[in-house]
């Protein structure tokens, strides 16, 4: 089973998928290994082949590149639970068809200002289609991998539409609407998340609270509650039988096992039957089956069977972070609790599991690039029993009794009150200690820290446990790469239609623009701050906001809230938020950090916001980088008359490659070797313009486009090449 699971999980690390002929050869070799009873290696190959076949099937169901950016009329059925945020809705359309093209089976769509949608309805929609694409940054969420794992072949935005048929068999959506209308002390969306695994009603602040306290799993990952609910049903039947209250003609053990599994399966279907729920149902079913046959079964066998069952049914599940967190949490508990001699006292049995899970999952969270909740173990000491023993039973019973006048609503009112008390306590805890983002380290340092965790989880006496703590603390005091004197590390972050660049010398950090903010999506909070923390940056020496447009300044407040900033400079101070307290950009201002020079320029006769952009020239050794913001052709001509007008090696494409910028005279004078374009995939502005790209190509410039290559990193002062985050490649990013 380990060999089979390893083959199935190896899919995550493949740069490309093997061709059909190679898969056939691997199958033949696997069959031969099984014939010679080399079962682990044979099953490894069969698992790998099966995962590759399913991966290729998902890739084949992606939107054709020829349809990227086109608007078509599409018909299909709404599935799942549509997510509503203000006037915006996100939903999935299954069995999508069009008269003019072949479409993927499932599309993920957004609709701003449209009428309410319900699961099960059929719609005819005018959709601007987009190929699966996501931002790619250090320690960032891989949206493309998630889309592939969900077998979503394309995304898009709805322009208009009409309902063709009402909902049919949409009981989950109807139940969600009923739950959201219940008076539950303002916590009805939380009850919907707990009961149905639907977190679409939670606000951004709600998610931040759960993440800060390490309690996200209590609301959306319902695997733990599946086992608890099944155990409660089993224990109830056993208790009734013990006191003679169970019918004598009904054998109590088969009924206990059957009701426990049926209840767990029903709750799993109610919660959406995601990967953690599948794992819990399979493991619970195996334990109950063995119990029914009066045989003792160790926990590793159900764990491995559940792992393989989930991966065989969903080979792409290994691309999702939730898969690893769910199974690793169970593995840590089995490893630390099974085979131990003696019993723990009640307080140890209550406190140790949370500490062990936090310690055991730390290397996984670190590898996945997720923030670590400092207060998680303490918060879960209270939250887990509070949710499991008080809130969940009353919430499920209240949901079941909703058809009964006042009784179901009364129980949900009680659940909401209990939830409200817990949330208020978590908010106090979250406000005291912020989540910690471990810095990026080499694979060797991560492995040493993981070994330290393993030593601490081993039974006492096998290895001296004090040896583990220094290795674990490598995560806190990890040796960081030292930037040599006279060089600057430059990151162009992938923030969509906007700009954010991080420049780090040996002892200083500058942020040039902070990314966009569009409605509730703040890339300063989602991208810039996590990347800065992953790079080990705790404060900024300078945040330079080129001008006040939201695609450059939108994320500035989020950055300011997250870390200390010594100085803020902007080319358009009146247009910025007052909280930023920025200083104006002054042409001719110059400073030096660690042997690297920084010079500012702004057009004195600027009229528009774009023309007011504060331009920054960075020189390390004899290599130069010019950051231009959104200056247009008129500002470019004015810049050529300044003392900073000299040949550069790296150029940030003015105004994202707009036709109004990157004039021939500007490019001919600067003669850049590389150009950096920061823009959103399929943006409505048409950036970069084909004429501008033609100019770049005619001059032999190396174009680095964030929409195609993700975040880009290079070292100024070394004359080296840039590295894209799409290197090393992964099979789901092909053609990106």
From TrEMBL:
InterPro entries: ComA-like_MBL, ComEC_N, Competence_ComEC/Rec2, Competence_DNA_uptake, DUF4131, Metallo-B-lactamas, RibonucZ/Hydroxyglut_hydro
Pfam families assigned: Competence (PF03772), DUF4131 (PF13567), Lactamase_B (PF00753)
Bilayer topology annotation: Multi-pass membrane protein
Gene3D superfamilies: Ribonuclease Z/Hydroxyacylglutathione hydrolase-like
Alphabetic keyword roster: Cell membrane, Membrane, Transmembrane, Transmembrane helix
Transmembrane among keywords: yes
Protein location: Cell membrane
CDD domains the UniProt entry points to: ComA-like_MBL-fold (cd07731)
Residues spanning the membrane: 16-36, 226-246, 252-277, 297-317, 323-343, 355-374, 386-404, 411-437
Domain Metallo-beta-lactamase: 497-681
Domain of life of the source: Bacteria
Name of the protein this chain belongs to: DNA internalization-related competence protein ComEC/Rec2
Natural source organism: Pseudomonas weihenstephanensis
